[in-house]
């Protein structure tokens, strides 16, 4: 089908975009369009106005500071995947993005688009949650930030008003903020490559010299109707020596999740997949943390 | 095609209870005033009133899908003796993505510190919106969230009334 009629706007500056967002009712933002365009063509989504962000200057930067990393909302998934300096300090992006869609969709798909669409199985929201990222939001009234962990409100509903714009994310460089022995890992399980994940896991762990866990972020996608942090597993890890027993116990926390059901898998199956995936990914992250000592 | 769309039906029942520090009869009088009750639903507004039948619209966000239901709201049953009434809403999406039918039953009873209000909503959605979302039970969750917000807001409005009454 073709989309129902809409007015097209293509602002070139952030100020212009925010003014449009403030003034227009029933407007949708177009980033890479890999989810929005099909939904509009199905006439599931039928906005009066479409604001195209592709010509807005300054939203597609990757900034690597000494302590912080800032990623603009319009950074393409391909840029995140191929950026060597970014992946040297935070390899989660490359590892996660290889699971995101396909080469053609990654060329268009953006970080902000993926965060805003907030599919429960999407990889990038899970990565942002594991990194304790802050989501930067702008409107004609000013700016505010939301913790990535507070970003999902309900199924595909992010913590943002219809007159606001996600402009980017910021997070502390994991390689410098948690010490030298930091390890990260991402993995997911889907029946076919490019499908929505039945479960996706992103881990950031840090160890001290005695192999005691000093930091643990465990983020899960695909298992529930929103991506989430598995705090039960994190609590089991922090302060313990990282051995196989701890890993197995922490992974079992995934079995306590409600889980969601669809034609692809039952809630019980999803929980089991999440547990197994968590155990493996956590082991990988811990191994990397041990190996990364300087 | 029509048959296929009509087959997409989601029915659910959602219960919310709250209490207000005010006499049951005061709460009852506020409840049967549709002009006060309707705007408590998130995104709802009344556009016209013709006797007992009120026209209005409600904007609901089902994830990325923003739906505007336009239709009528009326007090279908009213039992002043037992403080029980049923509010019925019938509406359809402005862009033909589905229809909504809701029966909201309110029962007011006396409690130790005022009145208890019991709300039971029977909601039926038909058309493409009824099938929205990849997983089972998501539309129910989203509807339950909206109705919970409605009950919270209604309770707040009624409590404000009660506070003003005392002043």
Quickly list its features.
heterodimer, A: 294 residues, alpha+beta, 12 helices, 14 strands, 34% helix, B: 167 residues, seven-stranded antiparallel sheet
Tally of extended strands of chain B? 7
Number of helices of chain A: 12
- Based on CA atoms alone, the radius of gyration of chain A comes out at 19 Å
Major β-sheet of chain B, in short? 7 strands, antiparallel
Helix content of chain A: 25-40%
Largest beta sheet of chain A: what is the strand line-up?
4-5-10-6-7
Shape of chain B: globular
- How many helices of chain B? 4
Order of helices and strands of chain B: HEHHEEEEEEH
Element order, helices and strands of chain A? EHEHEEEHHHHHHEEEEEHEEEEHHH
Biggest interface, CB < 8 A: A-B, 23 and 18 residues
Q: What average pLDDT do the residues of chain B reach?
A: 85
Characterize the quaternary organization of these chains.
heterodimer
Class inferred from helices and paired strands of chain A: alpha+beta
Poorly predicted regions of chain B:
1-6
Span between termini of chain A: 58 Å
Proportion of strand residues of chain B: over 45%
Describe the structure.
The complex is a heterodimer of chains A (294) and B (167). Helix content of chain A is 34%, strand content 24%. Chain A is α+β, with helices and mostly antiparallel strands and 294 residues long. Chain A has a 5-stranded antiparallel β-sheet. In chain A, strands 11-12-13-14 form a 4-stranded antiparallel β-sheet, with helices on both faces. A 3-stranded parallel β-sheet of chain A has the order 1-3-2, covered by helices on one side. In chain A, strand 13 and strand 14 form a beta hairpin. In chain A, helix 10 packs antiparallel against helix 11 and helix 11 packs antiparallel against helix 12 (267-291). The mean pLDDT of chain A is 94. Chain B is an alpha+beta fold and 167 residues long. Chain B has a 7-stranded antiparallel β-sheet. In chain B, a hairpin with a 5-residue loop joins strand 5 and strand 6 (99-111). Chain B starts with a helix and ends with a helix. The chains are: A alpha+beta (294), B alpha+beta (167). The A-B interface holds A 4, 26, 35-36, 39, 43-47, 117-118, 120, 154-157, 162, 196, 225, 260-262 and B 61, 63-66, 95, 97, 128, 132-138, 141-142, 145.
């Amino acid at each position: 089908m073709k989309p129902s009629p809409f007015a097209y706007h293509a602002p070139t500056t952030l100020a212009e975009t925010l003014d449009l967002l403030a003034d227009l009712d029933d407007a949708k933002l177009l980033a890479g369009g890999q989810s929005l365009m099909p939904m509009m063509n199905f006439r599931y989504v039928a906005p009066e106005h479409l604001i195209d962000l592709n010509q807005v200057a300054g939203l597609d930067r990757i900034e690597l500071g000494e302590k912080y990393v800032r990623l603009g909302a319009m950074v393409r998934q391909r840029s995140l995947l191929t950026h060597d300096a970014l992946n040297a300090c935070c390899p989660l992006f490359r590892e996660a993005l290889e699971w995101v869609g396909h080469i053609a969709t990654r060329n268009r798909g953006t970080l902000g688009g993926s965060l805003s669409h907030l599919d429960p199985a999407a990889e990038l929201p899970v990565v942002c949650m594991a990194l304790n990222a802050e989501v930067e939001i702008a409107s004609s009234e000013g700016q505010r930030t939301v913790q990535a962990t507070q970003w999902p409100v309900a199924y595909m509903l992010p913590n943002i008003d219809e007159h606001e714009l996600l402009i980017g994310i910021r997070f502390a460089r994991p390689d410098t903020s948690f010490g030298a022995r930091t390890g990260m890992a991402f993995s997911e399980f889907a029946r076919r490559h490019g499908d929505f994940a039945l479960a996706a896991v992103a881990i950031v762990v840090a160890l001290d010299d005695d192999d005691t866990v000093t930091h643990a972020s465990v983020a899960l996608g695909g298992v529930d109707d929103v991506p989430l942090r598995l705090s039960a597993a994190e609590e089991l890890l922090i302060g313990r020596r990282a051995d196989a027993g701890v890993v197995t116990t922490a992974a079992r926390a995934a079995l306590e999740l409600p889980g969601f059901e669809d034609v692809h898998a039952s809630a019980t199956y999803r929980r089991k997949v999440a547990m197994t995936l968590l155990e493996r990914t956590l082991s990988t992250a811990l191994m990397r943390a041990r190996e990364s000592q300087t | 095609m029509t048959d296929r769309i009509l087959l997409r039906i989601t029915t659910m029942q959602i219960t919310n209870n709250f209490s207000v520090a005010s006499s049951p009869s005061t709460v009852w009088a506020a409840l049967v005033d549709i002009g006060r009750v309707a705007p408590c639903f998130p995104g709802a507004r009344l556009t016209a009133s013709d006797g007992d039948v009120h026209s209005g619209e409600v904007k609901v966000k089902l994830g990325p899908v923003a739906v505007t239901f336009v239709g009528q709201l009326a007090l279908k049953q009213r039992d002043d003796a037992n403080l029980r009434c049923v509010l019925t809403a019938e509406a359809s999406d402005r862009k033909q993505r589905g229809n909504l039918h809701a029966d909201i039953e309110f029962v007011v009873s006396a409690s130790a510190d005022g009145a208890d209000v019991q709300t039971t909503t029977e909601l039926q959605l038909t058309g493409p919106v009824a099938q929205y979302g990849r997983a089972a039970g998501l539309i129910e969750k989203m509807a339950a969230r909206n109705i919970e917000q409605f009950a919270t807001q209604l309770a707040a409005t009624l409590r404000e009334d009660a506070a003003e009454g005392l002043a």
